Amino acid sequence: MNLSELPLTAFIDPQGKNRQEIEQLASQVLDLILSHLTTAINHSPLPEVGDLSDWVLIPEHPISESVLLEQLKTIIKSSTNAANPGYMGHMDSMPTTISILAELVAAALNNNMLSVEMSAIFSRLEFHLIKQFARLFGLGETSGGVMVSGGTLANLQALTVARNRAFHSHQAGIWNHSQQPVLFASEVAHTSVQKVAMLLGLGTSAVIPIQTNHNSQIEIEDLNRQIRQAKLAGKIPFCIVATAGTTTTGNIDPLPAIAEIAREHNLWFHVDAAYGGAIIFSPQHRQKLQGIEQADSITFNPQKWLYVARTCAMVLFRDVQQLETEFRIGAPYMQAADDLINLGEISVQGTRHADVLKFWLSLQHFGKEGYAKLIDESYQLTDYLFQKLQNKSDVEVVGQPDMNIICFRSIPAKILPENREKWNAQLQAYLLKKANLFLSLPVYRGQCWLRIILLNPYLNRTQLDRLIQQIDTFTHC
After folding, report:
1. Residues 376, 351 share a domain
2. How many structural domains compose the chain?
3. Whole-prediction pTM value?
4. Are 355 and 252 members of one domain?
5. Torsion over CA of 190, 194, 197 and 202, rounded to 10 degrees?
6. What tens digit of pLDDT does each residue of 434-451 get?
7. Which single residue of 34, 158, 261, 284 has CA 20 to 30 Å from 6?
8. Which residues 6+ apart lie within 8 Å of 225 measured at CB?
9. Residue 105 and residue 102: Cα distance in Å, rounded?
């Protein structure tokens, strides 16, 4: 091909003819990244985004690298700054250094995880790593799974298998069922469960919400009641979804009791442990996940509390053969391997990125002990802040945290109940503007709460004391 009209660095020449130019460009980009990340604490967690209209249009001709780098600098500067320890509002943090570098390697190799033929080493690496995690969660020798791009896709894949198993709908579909298939999930379960029900053709009404207690955990009595009522109404229950790490409060449903009910009614038992699954690495806290080993399927996102650069998620099955039987669509245009199935055939995605590289490298770099230390210290900071907030008469805290998430709101006597929503929104804005502290403002049980997620590895007690001080300053000004 004639590449004369393209920039010299458009591709990396396989004969190395433009190596010097590529190295120079890569060095400049790396410098932009490091300049930003090594000063992240000085920049707002939520920077303002300026007017981009003058350079977002697709140019007619290639632009110079100097202009391109200036545009990239603007994008970096305007991006959400999760590396700042003051960014405590969402389940996001800085990624491990090795997973950043792994992304570069994976992008450079550009293997397609659709088939073994197209990604021989990565497919095998994923297969073996996923089996390790399935066994780590206690799913047994016949377990396995596949990596996907996020918790929603993991939940979609798990519940698709559950539906197909219950209604033999892999080929026939569910169009000829006069009775509505239903599943049960906590009233505070992730909204992806409803999205999955919609995508599966069941409709969002197929997700029957179960009442929760003051700690956002499923009420077992209501779960039993809702199953009975669904059957009396002529509906067909097929699945229970439990949560290990609710999005707003970080609580864990009573997994052993739910597992028992699922067995009693022959229902698929799925655990959405997208966030909370990480505590399996902590000998001190992993007992909080007791009962997860009885799950038929599990969603887990290492991109959250294991700090792997997103996207990085997985769906695990107690019996991986059910995944193959109830989900697989063969790809006849792909060469099969003797020792391994093409993972794209058993995944909701066909073309897939080699996320396994950054995941595997992070695990190698940190080891189980390293991750246990990070998780345990998150709990220590959570306990410290929780006690500080509980001891304040002008603060209300939601329940008892099961993880490193705390929800609270400011309720000073001078603020009438009907004005508390506005007051807490103003507090959120004040913390961001005056102290570079970002707390999210989710709606929980019809009210706005401030949410703190103690995830950043550079958080410490001094910064939490500063947060308390800033809240007091706002309250008494």
Report:
1. no
2. 3
3. 0.96
4. yes
5. 150
6. 999 999 999 998 899 999
7. 34
8. none
9. 5
